[in-house]
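[recover] target loaded
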């Protein structure tokens, strides 16, 4: 597995911009001395070809490069910034080994993305051991800021509490009182099932059972038939990416829908694009970001689309936000020292196209509003990627687990 490296000044593809950056570096020698080796290196560790590659993957690397290019053009820092990237193949051992190699020999200061909770939890341990920063944008397990939290990791985009909270409440409110879960059998799926179950029961619903499938899975027929036999009104899909897409396709093929309703507890705009509006119309889902919400989201997303030929997922947009905030903190403290940078990141509010008045809590959770979406009918979609109706804004205080319920050791010292 090769690591890809992008040296951002050359990625700017502008002689004038590159010259300006070089002059800026020459004029800021004292600042360079505070950043180890004069370079801030960020590793994007993601799924480049597997089940989660569409929602993260190559698009995440593009978002990372955009963040660095924009930061350099706007802030003109006295240090260079490099992006390196690698494919963790959704395997914890590969992810932790690559992170260790980057930290030990590659002079990487921060690792980010980390789609799939198995890889995120593994890399968080290495980051803590090496006193480096982990910015988690793709993984979802609420364990990241609970049992497995640490003081060098930030969970940026969403977690299973927030997505289950938004979608679970909405579906129960619409009359979906009895549920059966189809769950990916690893940390993410287990957390999503547990967190959504709590919401369903608190809202007056009932969970009749669950079945767990291997991750990833192409043939979900036996698991779907068990869900069908349960007689539940709602089959909760506690999976993501290609697993969710396969679940929805196969449920239709077996005639499970529309007799039973599917609730996609973690879905992305790339899933809707892959399945089409005819197959997904009317479904509720909870997102942290939608490209077509306002002029700022549209402007950034159209830039992203020009490079990737797809609109961004919340993971890709959130990655841009996380890297930008990290680099701004490095510049503010004039250092890449982990503890100094983390303290500044927690001190400074996050205000960008991704989040308004966002803040990093003591448990490492970045608090921001979430949004309840409903997929449009085909007749209501008027242009490419016009997929959602925003049904509700869920304030950060309601979307995420209250700090009083946190199981993070940092909170209960």
């Amino acid at each position: 597995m090769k690591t890809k490296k992008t040296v951002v000044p050359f990625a700017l593809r502008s002689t004038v911009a590159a010259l300006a950056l070089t002059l800026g570096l020459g004029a800021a020698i004292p600042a360079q001395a505070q950043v180890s080796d004069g370079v801030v290196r960020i590793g994007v560790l993601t799924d480049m070809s597997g089940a989660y590659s569409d929602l993260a993957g190559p698009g995440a690397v593009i978002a990372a490069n955009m963040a660095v290019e924009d930061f350099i053009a706007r802030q003109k820092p006295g240090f260079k910034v490099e992006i390196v990237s690698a494919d963790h193949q959704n395997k914890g051992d590969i992810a932790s080994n690559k992170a260790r190699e980057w930290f030990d020999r590659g002079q990487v200061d921060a690792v980010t993305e980390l789609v799939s909770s198995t890889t995120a939890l593994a890399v968080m341990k290495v980051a803590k051991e090496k006193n480096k920063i982990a910015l988690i944008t793709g993984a979802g397990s609420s364990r990241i800021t609970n049992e497995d939290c640490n003081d060098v990791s930030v969970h940026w985009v969403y977690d299973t509490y927030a997505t289950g909270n938004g979608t679970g409440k909405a579906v129960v409110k619409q009359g979906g009182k009895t549920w059966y879960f189809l769950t990916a059998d690893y940390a993410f799926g287990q957390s999503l099932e547990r967190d959504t179950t709590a919401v369903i029961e608190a809202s007056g619903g009932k969970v009749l059972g669950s079945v767990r499938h291997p991750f990833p899975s192409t043939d979900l027929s036996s698991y779907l038939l068990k869900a069908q036999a349960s007689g539940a009104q709602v089959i909760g899909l506690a999976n993501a990416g290609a697993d969710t897409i396969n679940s929805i396709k196969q449920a239709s093929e077996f005639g499970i829908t529309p007799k039973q309703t599917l609730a996609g507890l973690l879905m992305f705009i790339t899933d809707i694009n892959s399945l089409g509006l005819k197959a997904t119309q009317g479904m509720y889902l909870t997102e942290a970001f939608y490209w077509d919400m306002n002029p700022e989201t549209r402007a950034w997303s159209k830039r992203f689309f020009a490079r990737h030929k797809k609109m961004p997922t919340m993971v890709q947009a959130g990655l841009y936000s996380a890297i930008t905030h990290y680099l701004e903190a490095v510049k503010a403290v004039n250092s890449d020292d982990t503890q100094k940078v983390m303290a500044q990141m927690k001190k400074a509010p996050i205000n960008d196209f991704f989040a308004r008045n966002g803040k990093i809590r003591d448990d490492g959770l970045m608090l921001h509003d979430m949004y309840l979406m409903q997929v449009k009918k085909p007749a209501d979609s008027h242009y490419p990627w016009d997929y959602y109706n925003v049904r509700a804004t869920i304030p950060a205080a309601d979307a995420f687990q209250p700090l009083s319920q946190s199981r993070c050791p940092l909170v209960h010292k």
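[recover] notes: The first strand starts at residue 4 and ends at 7.
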